[in-house]
Design a protein that fits this description.
The structure holds 2 protein chains of 2 kinds. Chain A is built from 8 helices and 12 strands. Chain A is α/β, with parallel strands linked by helices. Helices cover about 25% and strands about 40% of the residues of chain B. At the A-B interface, α2, β7 and α3 of A face α7 and α8 of B.
């Protein structure tokens, strides 16, 4: 019986010869929410891209998803194994309609599972939950979308694809209060649903805003490519009050 | 390199073939003059790159192709009140009506437009009387037989306030040589959408000259999908001589294998207060070669003109070449002229984004390449035509 969970062990990453991640250890169990916080430049997005398999990232170490070695797989196979990344800056793909793209993605990950009419119904339901106008179905993916619209679309993909482990990379950046509420509510709904209750989350964030809606079970703080502290939701509150400087000093003292 | 004698013999052969033609819509004298123009006029098309394998100066049909000249033109006209004539019949029986459009656009003055005029025999004249707005498009299918030359001439006259949509399917079998002209004249307030889908055999050559003259406050859209043929080359033009019109040229081409596509578009704003949009999507794969030259000319008195040129090129293989050149000549000072262009291969970040959603690399490239054409495809009339274009483009990707 394979271990269930997203296990990251000794993960290192170099970009253009420079070491950004210096040995990351993290274990996300099914259904649990881990928050990863840290100042800008700490390597948070690098971790997200390392896990997802971006070709420009030179990664070593060990990552298993429910016991399956993921680092040896190309990005599409990692996704089909159940990994999802909500991008901080999603790519625009002109000419490819949102509905067609979502259908292709769902078919890639769960071939033949929903007939077109049921898929369309699912799409409309999730769009309504996220406050996305149905007209977006026919728009070209992320083409000309505002920052808030792009993030809502990332959440729509999360809801429609219902992965096993979801990495959210600074999903709350650039969102106004209403968008943040819709996004937060959508994640909460996913966690309550049959399809999503076992989804493990790694929420990467600079500010603790989204954590009001999705309360983390574990909070990690990353500074300079290392996790320097791990705690519970209270750690996030502490950072909101004191910032990262105290932790930075502490980590230098220990190193 | 053929000798001067061989070249002269070839040229004489064309005149000889011409001697037997005296049918409407052109007299023998007119045909002779047109052939003179063909020989005297340079194509204006220089080799865009060292990979370009076509010489336009020596391009002409063979004697065998001329002898076998065989094209059928079928027209589906489901509309009341729209008249479709055989061109020769219209030249004999309705010359004044025909003369309001035929020869008015300058289509016969280009090198290959003149060649088409010299040998034109089969053609169609479409006349839409004032204020008619047919509910269905007219569908024209021209089919040229194998090893045969054809010079189809299509003339469209849409009178004031009327509307028309034409969908022309161009088919040509192996080793055909097609050199046609299409002329559109619309009167005040008229609207015409003219879509062409060319899907000739992979060793055929298809040349075209398409020219439109929109009237005051008229609207014209040329939508051109050049999908087949070893060589697809021609001119798309709109001459704006009256204010208030809205014109659009939309073209897409995707040479694969060893296809060549060479398209020159020209929008000439002679009168002011008119708008134009030129949108071209060209891609190349395998050893395909494409060249697009986009001309926007705004004359001195054409104040208030608004002209846009958007041309995007996508390279899907290392041996493909796309040469895209904008040429804007603006002689008036109170105008808006925009030009935007992109050229490159598929963006790796787009591929990664799709792969991160479980879509495998080659499927991602396919979706992105088809998506590239979609803004141009969207301008073609009827979902049926749009789907047929999508399918033809998808077939080039496998």
């Amino acid at each position: 019986m394979s271990e269930r969970g997203l296990r990251i062990a000794g993960l290192r990453c170099r970009i253009a010869g420079k070491e950004i991640l210096k040995g990351i250890d993290l274990f996300v169990e099914p259904g649990r929410v881990h928050a990863l916080m840290g100042p800008n430049g700490s390597g948070k997005s690098t971790l997200a891209f390392s896990l997802t398999g971006h070709p420009q990232y030179d990664v070593s170490g060990n990552v298993t998803l429910d016991g399956q070695d993921v680092l040896e797989l190309p990005p599409d196979k990692r996704a089909r194994a159940g990994l999802f990344l909500s991008f901080q800056y999603p790519a625009a793909i002109p000419g490819v309609k949102v509905a067609n793209f979502l259908h292709a993605a769902r078919q890639a990950e769960r071939p033949g599972d929903l007939p077109p009419a049921k898929f369309r119904a699912l799409l409309l339901e999730k769009m309504e939950e996220l406050g996305i106008d149905p007209s977006f179905m026919g728009r070209y993916l992320n083409d000309g979308f505002s920052g808030g619209e792009k993030k809502r679309l990332e959440m729509l993909q999360l809801a429609v694809l219902a992965p096993k482990y979801a990495i959210l990379d600074e999903t709350d950046s650039g969102l106004d209060i209403d968008a943040l509420k819709d996004v937060g509510t959508s994640i909460a709904k996913l966690r309550e649903s049959d399809e999503g209750r076992d989804c493990g989350f790694l929420i990467i964030t600079h500010y603790p805003r989204i954590l009001q809606y999705v309360v983390p079970d574990v909070v990690h703080v990353m500074i300079d490519g290392r996790i320097v502290k791990t705690g519970d939701a209270e750690l996030a509150n502490r950072i909101e009050r004191d910032g990262y400087d105290r932790l930075r000093e502490e980590s230098i003292a220990i190193a | 390199m053929p000798s001067a004698t061989a070249v002269a013999q070839q040229d004489r052969a064309l005149y000889d073939r011409l001697a037997t033609l005296n049918d409407p819509p052109f007299t023998a004298a007119q045909r002779g003059a047109a052939l003179d123009t063909f020989f005297a006029t340079r194509s204006g098309r220089e080799k865009p790159s060292r990979y370009w394998r076509v010489d336009f100066e020596t391009l002409q049909p063979t004697s065998a192709q001329l002898d076998a000249s065989d094209v059928t033109i079928e027209v589906d006209n489901p509309n009341d009140g729209v008249a479709v004539y055989d061109l020769a019949v219209a030249a004999r029986e309705r010359p004044e009506l025909l003369g309001r459009a035929f020869g008015r656009t300058g289509a016969h003055a280009t090198k290959f437009g003149a060649l088409a005029a010299a040998f034109a025999r089969r053609g169609v004249f479409i006349h839409v009387p004032a204020d008619r707005a047919p509910g269905e498009p007219i569908v024209i299918r021209s089919s040229t037989a194998a090893n045969s030359a054809a010079f189809p001439a299509i003339v469209v006259l849409v009178e004031r306030g009327a509307r028309l949509t034409v969908i022309e399917h161009i088919d040509a079998a192996s080793n055909a040589f097609v050199c046609g002209t299409t002329e559109i004249v619309c009167d005040e307030g008229a609207q015409v959408t003219y879509a062409v889908v060319q899907a000739a055999a992979e060793d055929a050559r298809v040349l075209f000259t398409r020219a439109a003259l929109p009237g005051r406050n008229a609207r014209v859209l040329w939508a051109d999908a050049e999908l087949g043929a070893a060589l697809a080359a021609g001119d798309l033009s709109i001459e704006i001589e009256e204010p208030g019109s809205e014109s659009e040229i939309v073209a897409l081409f995707f040479p694969n294998g060893s296809q060549h596509v060479d398209v020159v578009s020209t929008v000439h704003h002679r009168a002011g207060d008119a708008t134009s949009l030129t949108l071209v999507k060209s891609a190349g794969t395998d050893r395909g070669q494409a060249r697009f030259l986009g001309n926007i000319r705004i004359a001195e008195g054409a104040q208030g003109s608004d002209a846009r040129l958007r041309d995007d090129a996508l390279l899907l293989s290392t041996a493909a070449h796309v040469d895209s050149v904008p040429a804007l000549e603006i002689a008036a000072n109170d105008v808006k002229a925009y030009h935007g262009a992109t050229v490159g291969a598929i963006d790796d970040e787009q591929i990664f984004y799709m792969e991160s959603r479980g879509i495998e690399r080659s499927a991602a490239e396919r979706m992105i390449a088809l998506g590239f054409f979609e803004p141009a495809i969207a301008r073609f009339p009827t979902e049926r035509v749009r789907d047929s274009i999508r399918q033809a483009l998808a077939a080039k990707l496998t």
